[in-house]
Amino acid sequence: MKDWNDVLPTVVQALSDSPDSHACILDFLRVLPEEVTEGRKITLTEEELADRTKILLADNSDQVVQLLINYAQSSPNASRNPQLMECITSWLREVPVANIINSPLLDVIFNGIVADECSQEASECLGVVLRETGDVDESRDAIAILFPRIIALQPRIKALADEEDSEGLKALTKVLATAAESWVVAIAREPSQFRPLVDAVLECALRDQERDAIDCTFMFWYELKQYLVLERYIQSRVELMEVYSKLVDIMLSHLQYPKPDSGNETDLFDGDREQEEKFREFRHQMGDTLKDSCEVMGVTECLTKVLNSIQVWMGKYASQVEGTKVPEWQQLEAPLFALRALGRMVDKDEEIVLPQLMPLLVQIPPHEKLRFATIMVLGRYTEWTAAHPEYLEPQFNYIVNSFQSDSREIIRAAALSIKFFCTDCKNLLSGQVLQLQSFYDQVLDKLPDLSKEEVTEGVSSVVAVQPVTETYRLLKTYCDPLVQRLMAKANSATNEEGKLALADHLQLITIFVQNVTPMVNAGEENPAVKYWQEVLPILSTVLDGFLDFSPICERVCRCWRHMIISYRTAMAPMLGDMANKLAQGFNTSREGCFLWVTSAILREFSEDREHVDQATTDNIYSFFEAQTTTFLRTMNELQPKELPDVVDDFFRLLIDALLYYPQKLIPSQLLVPIFEAAVYALTLEQRDPLSSTLHFLRDFLSYGGNNPASSERLPPATAEQIRDVVKTVLASHGAGLVKQVMAGMMITFPRDCFADGSGVLLALFELLPVQTSDWVTETIRMLPEGTMSAAEADRLMTKIREKLSSGDAGDLRHVRVLLQDFTNTYRRRNVAPRDGLGQLEATRFQFSG
Fold it and tell me: How far is residue 329's CA from residue 506's CA, in Å, rounded to a whole number?
């Protein structure tokens, strides 16, 4: 097949005798470029592929164009054949676009646009032609021919809209938008000349009542904006500002919710959930286009349009409102949504429009959709409100009162807005901190879980900025009710639903821990720690009761971990009780979350921290050794695949231990069993625990050289002692490590772990090149018979020894590449054996400590 060079003439001649065979010829011509460039039924080198592409496509392009012209001119029906359009589209990748534009085929394509038989295919074909002219400087002649013909299509916009032909309008919009996108540079340079095209795209957006076609224009408006905001196109920006102004008006119209045919205001889409979801997504895309318009027009002009829309509605319909019955509410909700979408564009120093808008917002009628939109707007502009405190009270009251609504949507929106108000206006709300607690306590139980967290985020932000002297009292005021609810939930949590509710409630306490972090001088009592000391026994009791339920263990540990992170060395008074609970919890539950907290403690109370006495550091390291011993006993009883998450958490802990306590960990008696456990953990196939284990091994191996992964410089004598220990461990256990790393890279590791695996091998070659070379040879000999020839193995080892003997650091790194290539090749050729790894199986881990 590689030698068949006259494919085109042979096939055409064989099929050209019968008019009925024309469809076959067209189909053959359509698929030929696809098969040559994308089909891979036959394996070809890059050179062979380039050669075949030239012979089959490039050398035949002129002949194909002539064939298509002859066919198109053979009859009126032929010129309107959808297959013809598809064939032209396919060959546009191979034929210079100028050849099509300067041929009768251009008339065929444009005539096809208005023909019912092939309008969709012709529109697609013309779109490809237009994209090929995207380099406007190279395509000046082509654009000069295409532009008047594109503009001649504009009258069809109204005709298709009047006929309610949504598919035809969408196809035409795609053509016009594609032309505008392709020539956007030319439009920015010469807006007057190309204004008819811009106006045509705008008209498509205007007349698209079904909202099916307008999204085809969004990319053009964005691309044009990208040029118009540049200084060099300032004059073009002035000329086209009117277009973007009209676009905003069109957007405000299209943003309106539909009026239901059934008249049922509670189901605006008459049960069509797919259409409802599509409309939601569409509105957010429209919001992006509004931002583009705002960048071109300026914030004030854009906001003024929104203000005018709201004022017009107020003037027409405000007097007709009766409770929740609001006439033409869609016309009011749309500018509210637009105002929310524009929030990112508005600076907090805006002084012209927002002072007029904000008083209107709190007067919006209590219709569900309107109230939801208003709440979201107020929450979006809290930074502006913080800079204009005179507007805070009515807005905040509006949000607080919204919690009385029966609508879950409104309550969720109000909770999110409270979070933003309290976060951005926390200093302004300091005077209401006690009233805020009463509100918090009243609404908390009515909220869904996510909203509880959002409101808690907000109120805790206000508590956080109060004077340090008030911190203890305010934490007690806010959190004592939370703790009481916690105990009640713990007592009643008899099923999974109740236990999950308890776990979720623990998160609220954690949020206060994260946010309320008073600044106190060293040696002074931290008032937050004083309060959490009182809560610790309750959290410990809850933990004791639910050690068999992972979510509760994780949430309690998360809370304690954030205590360590938030209050750091000020947590010293709580460490003893907390460490005991962590040790008991891990010993009983074997949950990795207890190791999270251990790791945080290890980091914050390491030897190089200020204000940490040696006795505390020693006690913490002893606590770490106890947790390590518990893990090693667990590994003695269970396979790594039975506790991958715990393996992950343990080796993350060890990475911290190596970083902060190398002088204690590496010479200790636990090092060898830890190393053996790490090698055994390499039998896992999950990415996260493998990555943690390999990172630990790479850090450990770095201590055998002169650039250890330490948080501080070690004394020379200590560093030398540690290097000796590392090399001693490798001398006795290096073969097992090499075997498991190579087995993983060849068979079991996920692809994301290859780099770390080869990094371990590189580090071994740097420390012990001769021994590591021998271990690699031994491992290759263990491969199942028939999977790797002796010649290939010998060739690999010869190359490795050549690189090692050169003494060049670059050649040493090349050994890593050789091993990666070798393991990748092996992996491609061989499937993982179903009956185990044979001699490559890991030795079962054993620990007697």
Answer: 42
Q: What is the pLDDT of residue 694?
A: 95
SS (H, E, C) 525-564: CCHHHHHHHHHHHHHHHHHHHCCCCHHHHHHHHHHHHHHH
Residue 827 has pLDDT above 90, yes or no: no
pLDDT range class, residue 1, cuts 50, 70, 90:
very low
CA-closest candidate to residue 258, choices 282, 240, 285, 236: 282
The residue type of 352 is: I
Mean pLDDT of 74-92: 81
Under 8 Å CB-to-CB from 257, ≥6 apart: which residues? 268, 279, 330, 333, 334, 369
Q: How many helices (H) and strands (E) does the chain have?
A: 42, 0
Position 92 pLDDT exceeds 80: no
User: Of 6-15, 121-130, 318-327, 821-830, where does mean pLDDT reach its minimum?
Assistant: 6-15
CA 126 to the chain's CA centroid: 35
Alpha carbons within 13 A on the beta-carbon side of 521: 1
- Determine what percent of the chain is predicted with pLDDT higher than 70: 88
Place of tokens 């039975």: 642
The residue behind tokens 């008047």 is: 148
| Residues 62/102, Cβ–Cβ less than 8 Å | no
Within 347-467, residue ranges assigned H as helices are 354-361, 368-380, 382-387, 392-401, 408-424, 433-443, 449-464
Tell me how far apart the alpha carbons of residues 699 and 600 are, in angstroms, rounded to a whole number: 19
Q: How many CA atoms lie within 13 A of 807 on its CB side?
A: 0
Residue 189 CB contacts under 8 Å (≥ 6 apart), including other chains: 233, 236
| Tens-place pLDDT, residues 130-164 | 999 999 999 999 999 999 999 999 999 999 999 99
Is residue 247 within 8 A of residue 198, CB to CB? The reply is no
- Bridge partners (DSSP) of residue 322 are 325
Residue 591's Cα: distance from chain center in Å?
29
3-state helix, strand, coil in the chain (%, to 5): 75, 0, 25
User: Percent of the chain scored above 90 by pLDDT?
Assistant: 60
Amino acid identity for residue 247 in this structure: L
pLDDT at 697 over 80: yes
Q: 314-322: long-range contacts at Cβ-Cβ below 8 A with a sequence spacing of 24 or more?
A: 314/360, 318/365, 321/365
Cα separations in angstroms, 128 against 92, 133, 174: 7, 9, 11
Compute the average pLDDT of residues 784-807.
Answer: 78
State the angle between helix axes of 754-767 and 769-781 in degrees (0 to 180), rounded to the nearest 10: 130
Q: Taking the chain, what is the end-to-end CA distance rounded to the nearest angstrom?
A: 69
Q: Which helix (H) or strand (E) holds 48?
A: helix 46-56
pTM of the model: 0.83
Residue type, 383: E
